[in-house]
Amino acid sequence: MGGCRPAFDRERYEQRNVVERCFNCLKQWRGIATRYGKTAQFYQAAVTLAALKIWIRTDWRRALEAMVRRAAIGLTARRRPG
Predict the structure, then answer these.
(1) Tally of helices (H runs) and strands (E runs) in the chain
(2) How does pLDDT run across 59-68, given as a tens digit for each residue?
(3) Which branch of life, at top level (predicted)?
(4) How large is the greatest C-alpha to C-alpha distance in the chain, in angstroms?
(5) 27 DSSP assignment
(6) Do residues 51 and 43 touch, judged by C-beta distance below 8 A?
């Protein structure tokens, strides 16, 4: 079973990694992991709400990190001797 290894596509790997991490985050929700909602509509609603909460939390973290970086850059710019 020898042969050439398939080519490694970094962009495709990164996209797959994002999807896998998303599923792992969704599995943290007990109702989704155990399929507590028996109807398809209830399950879809639960997945949508969980995904929105994850997205909002991630978006706020990125915004906060950007603000901290900008503040740090501003502080270092002010400390330089003029």
Answers:
(1) 3, 0
(2) 777 777 877 8
(3) Bacteria
(4) 68
(5) H
(6) no
Residues 46, 29 contacting (CB under 8 angstroms):
yes
Whether the predicted pLDDT of 77 surpasses 60: no
Q: What pLDDT, on a 0 to 100 scale, did the predictor assign at position 2?
A: 62
Contact at 8 Å (CB) between 32 and 47?
yes
pLDDT digits (tens, 9 = 90+) for 32-50: 888 777 888 888 888 888 8
Contact between 29 and 50 under an 8 Å Cβ cutoff? The reply is yes
Alpha carbons 15 and 13: distance in angstroms, whole number: 5
From CA 60, how far away is CA 19, in angstroms rounded? 20
Q: What angle do CA 3, 19, 68 make, to 5 degrees?
A: 120
Q: Which has the higher per-residue pLDDT, 37 or 75?
A: 37
**Does residue 68 contact residue 36 with C-beta atoms inside 8 Å?**
no
